[in-house]
Amino acid sequence: MTKPLLTSSNMKRRNESFSDILLKSPWWVSVVLGIVAFAGLRWGVQVWWGDNKTFLPFETVAANLALVTVLFFGAMAGLSFWLGKRRRALLDQQTRLESLRAVSWKDFEFLVAEAYRRQGYSVD
Asked: 3-state secondary structure string, 16-28?
């Protein structure tokens, strides 16, 4: 039996950037996206356009951007891993009400989300 998705649909939040979404996602999401983006820019563009000489400069730029893309997604994967570990440790550190009062509002949000995740809920 799956538990329902916990959302805050009645709370207005700012629009999240792509990097914010990656940081909240599991680290392996960034790794998979990095691999797909690298393969697409490095080899997919060449396959897509074939031997057309008109697009040769674009193929060169795309191949050069492939490394930058891998570095970006790699950094997002590392940060996502670190933040996830930090959130889990934050919940484990809470032993009394005083320690909970010392937590910032943003960390409290992460703490509550991690508590629900441990109970089997999907938190958005």
From this structure: CCHHHHHHHCCHH
What is the identity of the amino acid at 53? K
CB atoms within 10 A of CB 39: 11
Q: How many structural domains compose the chain? A: 1
CA proximity to 49, closest of 61, 34, 37:
61
Give first-to-last CA distance, the chain, whole Å. 19
Instruction: Please check whether residue 37 lies inside any domain of the structure.
Output: yes
Q: What is the mean pLDDT of each run of 10 residues along the chain (124 residues)?
A: 53 73 89 94 82 78 89 94 85 79 82 83 78
Residue 40 lies in a domain: yes
Going by C-beta distance under 8 Å and a sequence separation of 6 or more, which residues neighbour residue 24? 16, 80
* pTM, full prediction: 0.65
Q: Which domain holds residue 25?
A: 17-123
Domain assignment present for 25: yes
Q: Residue 11 falls within a domain, yes or no?
A: no
